[in-house]
Amino acid sequence: MSGADRIAYFNGRYVPEREVLVPFRDRGFKYGDAVFDTTRTFGHRVFKLAEHVERLYRSLRYLRIDPGLTQDAIVEITGEVVRRNLPLLEPDEDYWVTQRVSRGLDPSAREIWPQPGATVIVECVPLPLRERAPLYRDGIRVMTPSVRRTPPEALSPRVKTHNYLNLIAGGLEVSAQDPSAWAVLLDTSGNLAEGMGSNIFLVHKGTLLTPREQAVLSGISRETVIDLAREAGLQVVEKDIDLYDAYTADEAFLTSTSLCICPIASVNGAKIGNALPGPVTRQLTEAYCRFVDFDFVGQYLKRLS
Amino acid sequence: MSGADRIAYFNGRYVPEREVLVPFRDRGFKYGDAVFDTTRTFGHRVFKLAEHVERLYRSLRYLRIDPGLTQDAIVEITGEVVRRNLPLLEPDEDYWVTQRVSRGLDPSAREIWPQPGATVIVECVPLPLRERAPLYRDGIRVMTPSVRRTPPEALSPRVKTHNYLNLIAGGLEVSAQDPSAWAVLLDTSGNLAEGMGSNIFLVHKGTLLTPREQAVLSGISRETVIDLAREAGLQVVEKDIDLYDAYTADEAFLTSTSLCICPIASVNGAKIGNALPGPVTRQLTEAYCRFVDFDFVGQYLKRLS
Amino acid sequence: MSGADRIAYFNGRYVPEREVLVPFRDRGFKYGDAVFDTTRTFGHRVFKLAEHVERLYRSLRYLRIDPGLTQDAIVEITGEVVRRNLPLLEPDEDYWVTQRVSRGLDPSAREIWPQPGATVIVECVPLPLRERAPLYRDGIRVMTPSVRRTPPEALSPRVKTHNYLNLIAGGLEVSAQDPSAWAVLLDTSGNLAEGMGSNIFLVHKGTLLTPREQAVLSGISRETVIDLAREAGLQVVEKDIDLYDAYTADEAFLTSTSLCICPIASVNGAKIGNALPGPVTRQLTEAYCRFVDFDFVGQYLKRLS
Amino acid sequence: MSGADRIAYFNGRYVPEREVLVPFRDRGFKYGDAVFDTTRTFGHRVFKLAEHVERLYRSLRYLRIDPGLTQDAIVEITGEVVRRNLPLLEPDEDYWVTQRVSRGLDPSAREIWPQPGATVIVECVPLPLRERAPLYRDGIRVMTPSVRRTPPEALSPRVKTHNYLNLIAGGLEVSAQDPSAWAVLLDTSGNLAEGMGSNIFLVHKGTLLTPREQAVLSGISRETVIDLAREAGLQVVEKDIDLYDAYTADEAFLTSTSLCICPIASVNGAKIGNALPGPVTRQLTEAYCRFVDFDFVGQYLKRLS
Amino acid sequence: MSGADRIAYFNGRYVPEREVLVPFRDRGFKYGDAVFDTTRTFGHRVFKLAEHVERLYRSLRYLRIDPGLTQDAIVEITGEVVRRNLPLLEPDEDYWVTQRVSRGLDPSAREIWPQPGATVIVECVPLPLRERAPLYRDGIRVMTPSVRRTPPEALSPRVKTHNYLNLIAGGLEVSAQDPSAWAVLLDTSGNLAEGMGSNIFLVHKGTLLTPREQAVLSGISRETVIDLAREAGLQVVEKDIDLYDAYTADEAFLTSTSLCICPIASVNGAKIGNALPGPVTRQLTEAYCRFVDFDFVGQYLKRLS
Amino acid sequence: MSGADRIAYFNGRYVPEREVLVPFRDRGFKYGDAVFDTTRTFGHRVFKLAEHVERLYRSLRYLRIDPGLTQDAIVEITGEVVRRNLPLLEPDEDYWVTQRVSRGLDPSAREIWPQPGATVIVECVPLPLRERAPLYRDGIRVMTPSVRRTPPEALSPRVKTHNYLNLIAGGLEVSAQDPSAWAVLLDTSGNLAEGMGSNIFLVHKGTLLTPREQAVLSGISRETVIDLAREAGLQVVEKDIDLYDAYTADEAFLTSTSLCICPIASVNGAKIGNALPGPVTRQLTEAYCRFVDFDFVGQYLKRLS
Fold it and tell me: What is the mean pLDDT of residues D261-269?
């Protein structure tokens, strides 16, 4: 069996992925007029599904898209998609699990495709464990491109949409210099904002610093880390932080759905800290593993050889 | 015959539109990681095709997307698409003609869809002549939403991409108040920027004012109007203009591929000028008709009844 | 008896309102070079008079206007004005009560009007209970105009002055679309700021969010609600909030001297919450009524018929 | 005879100034919700009256105030006001001549003052020739306060309104240090904007520099100087200029209705140029005198003794 | 003995100050490419040396300058420099004690000066007790110049560098008006930032307000005051504060290495508070004296005569 | 003979460079409180010396530094310094020639160094011809760091000062990725500004685009190129240009004192144009060589081997 056998939910039906084909007049394709949300499995168990779907519905409300389904229905469909695809996974693999909702077709296109409402897709894909495994050994090289994160007065970064060109433009600058570096964009005031699907944390004298929630898409992993840190008695401060904070940090790490927590080795070529991971990052990584009852670091590192 | 018989170019083949279906893992769908350009026909003749394709290639260069085709090839394909679809048109109808290029599929998706490079679509669709006909009789009601146009430091407005959510968010504010009003967004300094596919012009004592080219997607229609105005001896000034200029204008109009020139009746409910169209707008409209050798206003107005 | 019999304090004397006539060379008229503050009565009792007068004196200090009277004197005068006018009220009516201080006349005008110092007026006027009664039944339709609130680096929004044109310009945009909607302006970063005399609150999962005090005129009603909420065990966060927060809110309401608390039905046409008022708004409204020992909602609603 | 005998136009009647008393509930007083425009006489002849009234009507349109009078009527009334008051002038005195239009009374106030529409005042007052005479001998000491000019996205500086507190707040900073210095505010980007009723010009190698027209109230005197300079073969550039331009200027001067042209001696204490006035300023001053056929400099300087 | 006998550390040696001569091709001279930090002695005891050196190393990390010495070595050298110079002090004098590290010489200059790494200087100089003594009697007159503090996106204000021209440019505006006034610059949003080596605090109803740490160089004295205030049960809020807060403050004071705490008499000519120092300032001054076990106010005031 | 024999002017004397040693208490070292200007020789002839010295004096005026010398004296001294050092040059070498003026010593330091006024240095150093030779063969790789150019409201970029840390911080980001790439910083709006001593030009369809003069230090080389281009009939537009303009340019080049004109190969890794140099760059290079009567490109390229 292979990825070619994966099943996805597509507008009311469970179909092989190869059949999930979107009319080119779908607004999701023409305009990126769509939202999505993504969680992952840990040892084949879906992580915080309800929280992700709740965030998906906030994105839908912001853009006034009616998905034509209740939150509960999306949760149920997602569970079903995972169940149908788990047999395709190797035992030590896991899935990204994603819901996507576009506004659907423009009325003029309904002559050809008579679909009245939103386009809904729920799908999963194996995590890129092998490609990202070196990040846990070597740390992530972070670069801040000159492109600035879109400001909230134009489009809220808190909405997880199909409009990623701002982040992609930032990433192109970075990958032209170092294909395996990760871009973290600054906001229009020069504060650290976020990467493509990732949030940044700094450690200063045992305190965690991370950008204010307004300027970034506050990941579920980010919130999980904040909760775990506070439970561990660490102070967490959400505020405007900038390159001074980054260059003088004791430790730094990224969070994302797939990475959970992964240490940062350097920012713009300036080495951060003395160990990889640093002690606070290690402490939080272990707490994260306990919380999800799964050794995601080991899962990555075993791909190294 | 109907729209259902239209033919489009899709990754090397001319196929019925119903077969132009994009894998949901195409970056054009997932991220709006795609660009496009649109011209129209006048009396079944394509307008300034080479200029539009040239602008398409500037968009491609900005985003470092390789279309896998030369500009000449795209021009030729576009001509062929139009030729194949002209028989479907009523004599007094015309087409929007559009090229779309996405970055293609993420490598991980090639297991299912083994397409290596960009996704290229060339397509056409009849202009919404009936829906827009009243605009030429009544003028356009323009509103400036509170959402600001994405600034160039985040993503250049001069690139015609599949990332339209900023403009859509502005449009949602406006259509909630007046479904037939058109949104023209301000930039982050409060200057008039642009609408979704449209440019704005003001007339002050016989001089044309229009936003600087850096802050907006400078439409081919906009450039055509500027050229025609200068040929007619009118002064045209491209600079930062704001609501003061709009409210005190003698006349105002929008330009776009489909509208060419269409008079503005009011801005945020404040009536502009005394006649619809005003004398300069009328003069430029007539010059435009002569230039394209086609009475596009008549084409619209005959739909009123 | 009627409004024509109302008495006001005017530069040292208690006179019929019709005699409160300001020389057109008063700087309050020529430049809006004046400050004011407004409280209301509840069941004919004046609300937090000392706090309002204290705020008035902060406004005076910011603009370096010397009123020529102590805070205590203004409090006393205000009490006297109310006392003299209470007999004119119907039993179930109440007053707005306002102090106004302009910098006075330019020296060159003293040839005609030999008044050396500030112009001081203390006056009252019945609340517009009938006009606003539907807001408590239907909720307020809030719109955010494209005009931005004047930034503090130009003129502090925390000073209650006679310069209202920024707020009026925002209101003109809104009322042209919907005469009974209320404008809430965004600040120059696109965050929610304030309306003309009103503050906005959002409810997210039981937490109150309201703009930071620096960017808005922090109303006494706003502060009263914050105090009542904290006494009720609700969390209140003052921070930058934007349209994402508004569109995804569970509830929203405005506060102002006259409204106290009044629920918001929609923001830019997007419906907020499921009930009017929502449960937290209702809880705070009831606490407010208890605090002022007066059913201001009932006072409004009885005007509906 | 004295100023106490001056006549003004007030809502349809010509009355002694002492009778021009505005109800305190007029929106012009409560909110500064009013516009004005001011010209002067030269040797008892009114300067560019039509241009000033035209600008007044642009201000009215911006704020959607209906004056209830045609432009021609305002011109005629102004002429009449001047005619009636000229006999009060000494032969070598001249008038400021001003039209003021407020939006009028709130409906609730009409119980007392049954005036339905706008409040219109046309008035004149002698120019402060003696007070300002030293400026032509010593030059103006200009200071740039820390307060920034209100940005156009909040309220257009091009509208001449009764909202002057931003300019007044800037002036308070300056006059606290040097009571006879003039404040010229910077805009929110740090560019030179304008003073209270005055525009600034710099001379660099024979070229005139002055702020762009969007950011300032473009005075009629400013436009007159630009016209005269161009007729004299000087280059005039309207663009963003800042303190670097000011400190390195060869000459600098202010223009305003009363001053026409007056040389600047220093900016923030840094001396500008070597002569007062410098040669270009002198050339333009002479051209201005010829244009208005009046020696306004001599009129000022004769007050020195 | 005199200042001419002072000893300084210079690139590995303790030499008379007159021998501390920097090659003009040192990047510290050519570019200000250097950092420093300064503490003082209290009764000949060095204050918080370790904290200052730690901050020095954060500055070095931000600019990627390798000083070629450990933090401990710098602490030790500093102690030695103080020891060697204490005999030169009068009993009631004290020193500023400063470390300076430049990036050193450009490679091309090493032909002449064969120094490979950083330039390191540790030096001391007597505090200007006599010049500043009046400030404790009269309070500091603070002025906010029109020049804005360099924003963090250009160069972090938290790094104590040899690039002081932004602060110097602000100071020049102020000293041209009042040579003994102190400049406190606003940031690019118009908030109070900092002076040249000084931080500002306001007192409002017993609460201390001071700018956020991101926008200013957070002095050790500033942090000492915050700690002392909190120990004394006072609330301290770090947030954006502006001229409204300053003009309406009950008290205000500056902190700096030399001043420790010194009351502000006025801001832009507007008098602050009723007593000098105000009660909270006095309380904190006394706590500061106890903390450093030294009456620094008395040390200053005894210079008055 | 070697560089060790070079002579420089230092505060009134011509001395060997090794004796140009600046007291560490010179404000030029402590604060970068100094300005400079640099020209070069072409075939041992000094280029546009008067223009450079004139610009130096504008920098001095901005910072209110009195050099204690006339412009003519500086020109003469510079000539003398060059004359004395020319014998040290190989025939095909040339000099950078630089004047530096610091504000001098703080008064307290005059006990040791009794110098009352400014510190003045005039010096020269051979151009780094060998190091930069590959740039003419391969083109310059330009990168735009995330650090933004200091805005004019903080410190004018048009003043050539000893405060270079903003540009150095940008350069550190870039050289960490590619040690031989050149940083060109963006301004705070995201427009292309300048590099450390270099200006950028783009070629679009035969038109030259370069940033507005306000935002950058307008180099003499930049002005020379503009003059030469206009003489050659090319259009030159100074305006806000951004990364869209760069990525879509036909050609691009840098200008600086040493480089004169040097082609850009890529911006952020995106290749610019098809030839190195492109035809317009080549045309302007040739015009530049003719203008200075010297083949500076050949001078560089002969160092390749």
Answer: 98
